[in-house]
């Protein structure tokens, strides 16, 4: 639910007709908000957050206790398609690839799949399928997958590998946020004892996070990275369904868009001067 911040920021980009990116990589719920941006469908993510994701049919603790999904992604994606159709064909026709980050359940390693019309719904469900909280592992290209944030929640290294030299990272946490190993995460790992590679990746979540934050703030020579974080007053839990807090998070992103566009333009001018 914290991705409502990125939904506002990206809608602000759409208002300003700002899309200088050669390609994009989305992770978890952020992949869906990114897809609406790539499709040029301003306001769509907010409507889904506000009208569908706040439903008890999507997040249900009582259902989870009874052995069902805490987050029912099948219901969410079905309702979103019926009421607020995201047009993947628009994403594919703009000539700018969208990659979605997933985690291979059997290897525990990240997988980056280019969105296609045929795979769109499968990869969107897989990248949001938080292990244990969504009881199944969606199968993509014959491989069981889970939430992309497990193996690579901020795929900056992959963007660099793909050739990016100017990168914008849109986060859903404050600038100073640090991950910690909690009892809840230990419980998740225990529930996944039948999947040792995935369990090991989850064990490494804190160190992996620290590695990518260090990469963002100390990029290799020739790479410029703009890190965009929510303001300090943005407080929303992962499963927070409070309408007012969701709206405030969206508005925070929307209001930040113009200043981020200016930062991007300024960094581009600096790059030009360095190149002579």
Commentary on this structure:
Helices cover 49% and strands 12% of the residues. The strands form two sheets. Strands 1, 2, 3, 4 and 5 form a five-stranded mixed β-sheet that branches. A two-stranded parallel ribbon has the order 6-7. The protein is an alpha/beta fold. It is built from 13 helices and seven strands.
SSE map:
Layout (H helix, E strand, L loop, with lengths): L3 H12 L8 E4 L1 H10 L5 H8 L9 H5 L7 H11 L4 H6 L4 E7 L5 E5 L5 H9 L10 E2 L2 E4 L2 H4 L3 H6 L4 E5 L12 H9 L4 H8 L1 H13 L6 E5 L14 H33 L1
Parallel strand pairs: 1-2, 6-7
Antiparallel strand pairs: 2-3, 2-5, 4-5
Helix pairs in contact: 1-2, 1-13, 10-11
Q: Kindly state the mean pLDDT as a whole number?
A: 92
Based on helices, strands and strand pairing, what is the structural class? Answer: alpha/beta
Runs in which pLDDT lies below 50 for 5 or more consecutive residues are 272-276
Strand content: 5-15%
Shape annotation: globular
Distance between the termini: 44 Å
The total count of helices amounts to 13
What is the N-to-C order of secondary-structure elements (H for helix, E for strand)? HEHHHHHEEHEEHHEHHHEH
Rg, rounded, reads 18 Å
Helix content class: 40-55%
> What is the strand tally?
7
What oligomeric assembly is this protein in? single chain
Largest sheet: 5 strands, mixed
